[in-house]
């Protein structure tokens, strides 16, 4: 006859069974460890970035569970195990961020002798982001040639910022990056042309190559990048014409080609960039074609900068549909004529306006003084003239934010201005009486309310009328 354990021993048996089951469940769901070979590669890379820090001692455990900030892992399901009908997980490094940025992003700090370890491009096949900030500043480091390797198959962000001793060709680092979304190489020593195969980065959303030593033309292949949102090629040595094909980048929000050697005519195809918000073509060699009129057909623009190009001509009347503009840079462009009052009427969100170092003339439109969000309006070194139409209510605001020096014909009433800054109104000359318009005389009397002082004094009949009026006034007041 079968026997059963007593109630006490039965309870212990059940408890032991549950604990065993729970333990097995915990083990079965435990996160996998980083592969030892991949972990060693991380240590080697960290040592090449800063050998003075004992990385293995400080972080001896699995780096996917306890790692320096900037080393990021993720977990992946491998191919199904048909024997056990399970999907085994594996751990892999997906982000490597180097170079201390701030207390909020305290990535492993780089040393002056940092090097670029070759394991970066062979040991991390799941890598999604590679980031270096101020790592290569003294020791020369050559950009690796990974164009023919399998590196970067899963890479989404490649970022090198402020690494002046990182030198070499851009073509070498454009590899098998079919998933790349951000390519940011700014403030480095990278040189050469932009390779045509940059057009193969079909998923790219940002290309920032500013402040390098790049040369040549803008390749036609850039026009293939239908998802591109940001293109920044500023502060390089590019030249030639900007191709009309750049107008094919219909999703672009920011286009910055400033501080290069581009010349010729600004392409009309830019009008196709209907969601463009930021346009900077300043300090190139575009010339003699005037401010493009098609800008008035780009209603999403918030900032436009053309300073340093001798475009010449007048400031066009294109502002009616550009009410969202907050910044305009039109310095040193050879502009002539008057400042359109319509700029003050329609550009109600304007914060920044530079029209300095041109040949503008006439009065400063009063509409500019009443713009609500102005931080700076620079009108220095033109041929502007006339009285600044100010009242005490607006003096403090205008005095801090308007720069008017270098316009010998401008004047201001006595009592306005201060000495807060170099561009203050106090630097302007005081108006003579001849600069101040004569008021309408005797406005409260119907008999002469329609006559200005100029009209009265310009004819003998007016003088007689004026004399008779004063005689009548004297008689009444006796």
UniProtKB/TrEMBL annotation:
The keyword Kinase applies. It is an enzyme of class 2 (transferase). It catalyses: L-threonyl-[protein] + ATP = O-phospho-L-threonyl-[protein] + ADP + H(+); L-seryl-[protein] + ATP = O-phospho-L-seryl-[protein] + ADP + H(+). The chain crosses the membrane at residues 456-476. Pfam families: LRR_1 (PF00560), LRR_8 (PF13855). Keywords: ATP-binding, Kinase, Membrane, Nucleotide-binding, Serine/threonine-protein kinase, Signal, Transferase, Transmembrane, Transmembrane helix. PANTHER family: LEUCINE RICH REPEAT KINASE 2, LRR RECEPTOR-LIKE SERINE_THREONINE-PROTEIN KINASE. This is non-specific serine/threonine protein kinase. It comes from Hevea brasiliensis.
């Amino acid at each position: 006859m079968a026997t059963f354990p007593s109630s006490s021993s039965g309870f212990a048996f059940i408890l032991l069974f549950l604990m065993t089951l729970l333990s097995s469940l915990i083990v079965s769901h435990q996160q996998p460890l980083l592969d030892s070979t991949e972990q060693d590669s991380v240590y080697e890379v960290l040592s090449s970035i800063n050998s003075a820090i004992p990385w293995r001692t400080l972080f001896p455990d699995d780096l996917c569970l306890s790692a320096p900030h900037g080393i990021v892992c993720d977990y992946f399901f491998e191919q199904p195990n048909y024997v056990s009908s399970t999907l085994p997980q594996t751990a892999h490094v997906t982000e490597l961020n180097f170079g201390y940025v701030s207390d909020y992003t305290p990535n492993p700090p780089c040393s002056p002798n940092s090097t670029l370890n070759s394991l970066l491009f062979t040991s991390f096949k799941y890598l999604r982001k590679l980031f270096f900030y101020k790592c290569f500043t003294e020791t020369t480091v050559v950009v690796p040639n990974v164009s023919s390797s399998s590196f970067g198959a899963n890479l989404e962000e490649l970022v090198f910022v402020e690494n002046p001793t990182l030198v070499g060709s851009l073509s070498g680092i454009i590899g098998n990056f079919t998933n790349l979304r951000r390519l940011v190489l700014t403030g480095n020593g990278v040189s050469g042309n932009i390779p045509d195969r940059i057009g193969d980065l079909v998923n790219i959303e940002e290309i920032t190559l500013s402040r390098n030593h790049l040369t040549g033309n803008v390749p036609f292949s850039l026009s293939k990048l239908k998802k591109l949102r940001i293109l920044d090629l500023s502060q390089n040595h590019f030249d030639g014409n900007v191709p009309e094909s750049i107008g094919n980048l219909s999703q672009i929000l920011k286009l910055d080609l400033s501080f290069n050697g581009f010349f010729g005519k600004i392409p009309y195809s830019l009008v196709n960039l209907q969601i463009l918000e930021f346009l900077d073509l300043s300090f190139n060699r575009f010339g003699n074609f005037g401010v493009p009129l098609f800008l008035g057909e780009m209603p999403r623009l918030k900032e436009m900068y053309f300073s340093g190009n001798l475009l010449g001509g007048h400031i066009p009347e294109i502002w009616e549909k550009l009410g969202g503009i907050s910044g305009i840079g039109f310095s040193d462009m050879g502009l002539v004529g008057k400042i359109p009052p319509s700029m003050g009427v329609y550009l109600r969100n304007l914060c920044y306006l530079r029209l300095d170092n041109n040949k503008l003339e006439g009065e400063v439109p009063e509409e500019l003084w009443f713009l609500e969000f102005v931080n700076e309006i620079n009108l220095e070194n033109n041929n502007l003239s006339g009285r600044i139409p100010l009242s005490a209510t607006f003096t403090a605001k205008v005095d801090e934010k308007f720069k008017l020096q270098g316009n010998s014909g401008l004047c201001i009433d006595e009592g306005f201005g201060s000495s807060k800054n170099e561009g203050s109104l106090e630097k302007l000359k005081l108006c003579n009486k001849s600069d101040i318009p004569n008021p309408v005389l005797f406005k409260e009397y119907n008999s002469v309310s329609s006559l200005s002082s100029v009209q009265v004094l310009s004819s003998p009949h007016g003088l007689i009328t004026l004399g008779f009026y004063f005689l009548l006034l004297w008689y009444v007041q006796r």
